[in-house]
Amino acid sequence: MNQILTTLEPHAIWKHFQTLCNIPRPSYHEAALRDHLIAWAHDLGLTTYVDPVGNLVIRKAASKGMEKAETVVLQGHLDMVAQKDAGVDHDFETDPIITRVIDGWVHATGTTLGADNGIGVAAALAVLESTDLQHGPIEALFTIEEETSLRGALQLEEGILKGKILLNLDSEDRGDVYIGCAGGMDINVDKNYEVLPAEQGAQAFTVTITGLRGGHSGLDIHKGRANANVLLVRFLNGLKLSYPVGLSAFSGGTLRNAISRDASATFNYDPKDKAAIEQCIEQFKQDTQAEYGSIEANLEVLVSDASVDTQLSAEQHTALINALSCAPHGVNRMSTELEGVTETSCNLGVINLKNNPEGGKSFDACLLVRSLVNSAVDHLSNTAKSAFSLIDANVVLENGYPGWRPDPNAGLLKHFLTVHKEVTGQEANVKVIHAGLECGIIGAKYPGMEMVSFGPNIRGAHSPTERMEIDSVGDFWRLLVALLASTPKA
Questions:
Q1: Residue 378 is a catalytic residue
Q2: Which of 139, 146, 466, 475 is catalytic?
Q3: Angle between helices 314-326 and 228-240 in degrees, nearest 10
Q4: For the chain, percent helix, then strand, then coil, each to nearest 5?
Q5: pLDDT of the chain, 490 residues: tens digit per residue
Q6: Smallest Cα–Cα separation from 484: which of 189, 107, 66?
Q7: By CB distance 3.0 to 4.6 Å, which of 154, 253, 348, 360 could disulfide with 260?
Q8: Partners of 429 in the β-ladder
Q9: What's the start-to-end Cα distance of the chain, in Å?
């Protein structure tokens, strides 16, 4: 088993992150890690509680002399995003994450690293295990399924937390402290199609868009990166205007909250149009590579021969591509109150068109809307619903969650800023994040709880380029230790 991380400092936190790399924990498969942590906590004499949805709480009494301090909730999520590079042989349900250290950063090998949010969980475990740290009563809350639906936070049992201070350990920039976040909504779309047999004598191509950077659909949505789903729909939309192709399959993206890096579509065409369509593909490749330039330096548009038996009718094909073309994607609005902050966005995360085992074809898509303004979440979600209602698809808006309204005058924030300056010698940057931190959901269940979110430097989260800066983990740990040692009295 890979143990390279146990040689890093601070050892107290890295050894636990190594354990998290060794125990598979993709969303929906957190049970093995949770069971391990329960046994580990019991060995330390700590108390545990698992709520009905599967969230884990581990409690630790105050250190000597800190019994009157306020109870602090240390919060993170157990699951990680499961993404890997094409051609990498890795089963996220059974295989450990293989790590490497390169130029002061920890990387995985062809997969996501799980620093989001493994390092936050590891920090909480280090506090729970410590025998020499100063802290008041601790409640460590480890939620499930944050990366897929926020179900753990959404269904968190009310009344199980006593703390009035929550330190969310799920941010990704050293020196930043987050005091607000976006709310969001999933848009899940599905439709079944009756199909036609492929035209006699027709040939088929599979066109694949690959090599994109991808990234987090909130944190990276404003950076101008390409979305493979959007590009492929764009290509198909232009193609159908000139040639009578028959769409047979589409597969793009794997997660609603990750910008799609790869997408493929298969379609039939009249052999007499082969050379012209190949020219269209080449022209599209040149156009998109020129359009995105260095932002997507590895963008590729690949074509290969294929063979299919069935296709959508011309009317179905046209209507579906029109609906996908109208579906919102990218930044919808920048905040007018917070400079440089995305207010509202939508990510066209997943598209599938495939054979239905019961006959015909099934289509499904998943989009994720985010906004700092709850009414804007509703508006953009309904816009997406309207686009797919035009093809009579079943559209379900679900897993909605509230945002976290920032309070720049909160006592906890002032305390954090003071401690941050003492520990690092630098002023912290106060920020609001365009992502669905669990703070907003937990805060709605526990009114009056003060919260901040902070963490070390993590780059490329939700993609196989994910990496974490070693030095920043040390700063993160020292800051957490100092915050706990200076927790005010209850």
A1: no
A2: 146
A3: 140
A4: 30, 30, 40
A5: 577 899 999 999 999 999 999 999 999 999 999 999 999 999 999 999 999 999 999 999 999 999 999 999 999 999 999 999 989 999 999 999 999 999 999 999 999 999 999 999 999 999 999 999 999 999 999 999 999 888 999 999 999 999 999 999 999 999 999 999 999 999 999 999 999 999 889 999 999 999 999 998 998 999 999 999 999 999 999 999 999 999 999 999 998 989 999 999 999 999 999 999 999 999 999 999 999 999 999 999 999 999 999 999 999 999 999 999 999 999 999 988 778 889 999 999 999 999 999 899 999 999 999 998 889 999 999 999 999 999 999 999 998 888 888 888 899 999 999 999 999 999 999 998 898 789 999 998 999 999 999 999 999 998 999 999 999 999 999 999 999 999 999 8
A6: 66
A7: 253
A8: 176
A9: 44
Alpha helix (H) ranges present in 241-392? 274-292, 314-326, 374-389
Please name the amino acid found at residue 6: T
Nearest C-alpha neighbor of 441 from the set 156, 101, 34: 156
Query: Is 79 annotated in the active site?
Result: yes
Judge whether 413 and 161 are in contact, CB under 8 Å: no
Q: What's the rounded Cα separation, in Å, for the pair 264 and 229? A: 8
Can you point out the beta strands (E) in 218-287?
246-252, 263-269
Name the catalytic one among 30, 79, 220, 296. 79
| pLDDT per residue as tens digits for the range 246-265 | 999 999 999 898 999 999 99
Contact 157, 52 (CB under 8 A): yes
- Rounded to whole angstroms, how far apart are CA atoms 184 and 436? 7
Q: Which two tokens stand for residue 55?
A: 């969230």
User: Which amino acid, one-letter code, is at 193?
Assistant: Y
3-class SS of residue 217: coil
Contact (Cβ atoms closer than 8 angstroms) between residue 397 and residue 185: yes
Rounded Cα gap, residues 470 and 99, in angstroms: 13
The rounded distance, in Å, linking the Cα atoms of 462 and 216 is 6
Q: Say if residues 410 and 474 touch (Cβ distance below 8 Å).
A: no
Nearest CA-CA partner of 352 in 239, 262, 258: 262
Report the amino acid identity of residue 353.
L
CA separation for the pair 303, 301 (Å, rounded) = 7
Q: Could you tell me where the DSSP H helices lie in 183-269?
A: 228-240
How does DSSP classify residue 407? -
Spell out the residues 6+ positions from residue 478 whose beta carbon is closer than 8 angstroms to its own: 423
Q: Give the CA distances from residue 25 to residues 113, 190, 265, in Å, rounded to whole numbers and listed in that order.
A: 11, 28, 31
Q: What are phi and psi of 340, to 5 degrees?
A: 80, 5
State the Cα–Cα distance between residues 230 and 284, nearest whole angstrom. Answer: 13
Tell me if residue 330 falls in helix, strand or coil.
strand
